[in-house]
């Protein structure tokens, strides 16, 4: 696999898991956060959250900063923040469109 | 290797009534809330203009009458062009139709480049 394909594959894996997407959404809402803080928000164990954060870091989607004994995570700027927003925005748009379609067909 | 959004809706009309609502540009525009020009044939071109002024160009891929329509669309602005592929699938159910919509974006590949 080329380097580019490896990176794309890592990002795809990161986004494919719903818990990892949830972690990303949480970080988008209130970055930076520690693994402990994130565990409160996503219903899996702290150990699982830590593994997810490691995958996300390996994919270049989150970055850690150490504050004393604590490690906080935040989203890396750019493409991935855009991606999480895209999924939500496009979902809302289709919900609205399909609601209009139902009304328009129902009236026919 | 892309993100996708999936939605589906139950419609009381059968597929042969739903199909024109998807493929006739004026009717498609009525529920997309856009001005639509679309040549509904494989390789056909299209243009969507949204109320906020956003314009997208489109290219039609598959046309399976009464069953499936797919096209890609993108904003023709240098550096902001971001294609995604939209697929409408019509499934007949009991006198009505389940319409499934999937929009898939390929930006993840480019973002990782």
- Tell me how many strands of chain A there are: 3
Structural class of chain B: alpha+beta
Mean pLDDT of chain A: 81
Largest sheet of chain A: 3 strands, antiparallel
> Unreliable runs of chain B, pLDDT <50, ≥5 residues?
107-113
Structural class of chain A: alpha+beta
Low-confidence stretches of chain A: none
Description of the structure:
The complex is a heterodimer of chains A (108) and B (113). By secondary structure, chain A is of the alpha+beta class. Chain A is built from five helices and three strands, in the order H-H-E-H-H-E-E-H. Chain B contains three helices and seven strands; from the N terminus they run E-H-H-E-E-E-E-E-E-H. Chain B has helices at residues 15-23, 25-32, 107-111; strands at 3-11, 35-38, 45-49, 55-64, 68-74, 84-93, 96-105. A seven-stranded antiparallel beta sheet of chain B has the order 1-7-6-5-4-3-2. The interface between A and B is medium-sized, with 30 and 29 residues.
Which structural traits does this protein have?
heterodimer; A: 108 residues; alpha+beta; 69% helix; B: 113 residues; 7-stranded antiparallel β-sheet; 3 helices
